Amino acid sequence: MPLSKVKIAPGFDKQSTPSEAEGRFVDGDNVRFRYGEPEKIGGWSALVDKKLVGAARAQHAWATTNGKRYAVIGTDKVLIAYYGGAFYDITPLDTDRFNNSANITTTNGSATVTITTSSANNLAVGDIVTFVNAGSFTGANTDYGTADFDNILFEVQSVPTLTTFTITMPAAESKSGVTNDGSLDVRPYVTVGPLTQTAGYGWGTYLWGGRTVAQTTTTMNNGGTLASGTTAQVILTDATNFPNSGTIRIGSEDITYASKSSNTLQTLGRGANGTSPANHTDGSTVTDISEYIGWGDASTSSTVTIDPANWSLDNFGNILIATVHNGETFTWDASDTNALNTRATIGSGMPTKSVMTIVSDRDRHLFHLGTETTIATATTQNKMFIRFSDQESTSDYEPTSTNTAGTFQLDDGTQIVGAIKGKDYILVLTDTAAYEMQFVGPPFTFSIRKVGSNNGLLGQHAGIFANGAVFWMGKTGGFYVYDGTVKSLPCLVEDFVFTTNGNNPGINFDSGQLVYAGINELYSEINWFYPTANSTVVDRVVTYNYAEGVWTTGTLDRTTWVGSSAFERPYATDFNSSDTPTFPVVNGVSNGATIYYEHEVGVNQQNGDGTTTAIPAFIKSGEFDLNGRQGVPGDGEFLLSVRRFMPDFKRISGNAQVTIFLNAFPQGSTAASSPLGPFTVSSTTTKVDTRARARLAAVQIESSSIDESWRYGTFRFDVRVDGRR
């Protein structure tokens, strides 16, 4: 009987049943489509043989005016510059937590060192600290000297008291040990935030005993003891992040307050939540428990979300603009002659608490989104408020008649989630709406108009500009595109991505801030990397090929991605929670490391240690009907005998495995049926003889060894009528 050819359309169709998806592909991993044909994706190679501390949350690449190309990576722990094949630590120091004239306590046989500070250290376990001006140690009793502390990084292991914390040295103390010895100045790194995102409802929102996860703490600075009967006021060291009214905890007592004036909490209600009034001394820890939920009580009515660590990174010419999510903004001048040995520093004149920042390139204004209504007053942060600088300035934000600084207040939504640069506009996305912001010149400088509702952004980095339009992943599911009009983007893998069903875990909406969109201009692709319902880290990708209008899915798990605008190929980061980081060197560092890869390099994974790992890839078609071909009557009426097939690869390196899945009825399962194969196919394979009987068939092509790569064309097979049952 003549051979029958099966042509399968490009793209995945996961919305249909296997037999309904006839003529389409239904599953695959590490594959893409080019000119309508499926192929294994390109490989990737580690750019540096070191692993970064923490999980990368943002990445930005650009070329300076002198032609130097930089990439900057912000993790939940550090800020790192990449230049010339090497990493450089440019993490800013937290000047608000500097602590001078601390000293050390050591114990014979132990590598643990206790640092005692002269005032409250405000540190937490996991913070990174370094030291300067170390000295005056009693050398007869301790191994440790100036060189063991100055400019050496440590991870905080514990915080036993308000004025003590512990670190781990590379080697244990061999001498008798010292108590409160020597002197050194503590220099903490800026705290970026937690590794994962926590939903603000249910029992998981709060810690054992009713403590809030997102607690704000300070110390009492009352000028003396707060007596148990005092109800007028209590003075704190820093009440900046405490609400205007609420509840605090000092020791074992909960205290309500009706108002706040600077650092003074007024009109106190003693012994709240069933606690007993007590005397409290200066230096006691004061914790904001205004969002307190008692142990065993579910906060099902709460809409609070504990956001993960995040950065927004952009450049104002040669100057990096780096903003901690809901935090401060820092700058780093890449054109400085000693830039790679210089840390980022706090931005002069800038707001001190913003959701994010973004630069309007064509007119050179710096935008702070979700920022302060009163500059430098963090308590005035309004997450729907926008402030932009004077033209050509990063420090002048007060609007006057002689500058172009200004503000906007958005009204649709509860917070600005992200913003994406378009061709000549910035698209600002809240949790419910889309706004187009465009430079119009004097006297208004910028115009802003709402262009869409009910199409909010899922996460800060879940949108990207590509092919003349902005694409983004929606807050409640689905994909959107803005090309002058907001449209819903048709997607044949939508249920697979957004719905948890059976064995398929859909997206983890509660970790939406981890979603990262990246463009691969080399293949006209947009990737959205996202965590599934069973994960709090990125573990899957959905890809849209905007040139061919098709979708694929896979398990590529990159936490950040930049396209090939600054470098020749895409650069991406991969986080592994069990890896030990090696850059920067941090004594006592916890596991969790990021590898930096260059993509579209060869067909394998080239590791930083020089070894090579295979990249497995496969693609599977929907079931196609063997009847109705080459004169065979009916539409599924007859069982057919499959005698042989002829593979047709556009190109193939090494081997590929071809498996044919057979099915007698549409309601049957090709996965459960006895497959034919796998058959090993190479560039010299002309045909494969088979013996099989079915009404429906599906084809799978896969490879799993080093140096294997392929692009698949068509499938030809020989079928004959073989009865009705």
Can you tell me about this structure?
The chain contains one helix and 57 strands. The chain is mainly β. It has an eight-stranded mixed beta sheet with strand order 15-16-12-11-17-13-14-46, with no helix packed on it. Strands 5, 6, 44, 45, 47, 48 and 49 form a seven-stranded mixed beta sheet that branches. The longest helix is centred in the last third of the chain and has 5 residues, at 494-498.
Task: Describe how the helices and strands are arranged.
Blueprint: E1 4-6, E2 25-29, E3 31-34, E4 37-40, E5 44-46, E6 52-53, E7 56-63, E8 69-75, E9 79-83, E10 86-89, E11 99-105, E12 112-116, E13 128-135, E14 153-155, E15 158-161, E16 164-168, E17 181-188, E18 216-219, E19 233-235, E20 246-250, E21 253-261, E22 264-272, E23 285-288, E24 311-316, E25 319-324, E26 329-333, E27 345-346, E28 356-360, E29 365-369, E30 385-388, E31 406-409, E32 416-421, E33 426-430, E34 433-441, E35 445-453, E36 463-466, E37 469-473, E38 479-482, E39 486-488, H1 494-498, E40 516-520, E41 525-530, E42 540-545, E43 550-554, E44 558-562, E45 571-576, E46 586-587, E47 593-599, E48 605-606, E49 612-613, E50 617-621, E51 624-625, E52 640-653, E53 656-663, E54 676-681, E55 688-694, E56 696-703, E57 709-721
Parallel strand pairs: 5-48, 14-46
Antiparallel strand pairs: 1-57, 2-50, 3-4, 5-47, 6-47, 7-8, 8-9, 9-10, 11-12, 11-17, 12-16, 13-14, 13-17, 15-16, 18-23, 19-22, 20-21, 20-23, 21-22, 24-25, 25-26, 26-27, 28-29, 29-30, 30-31, 32-33, 33-34, 34-35, 36-37, 37-38, 38-39, 40-41, 41-42, 42-43, 44-45, 45-47, 48-49, 50-56, 51-56, 52-55, ...
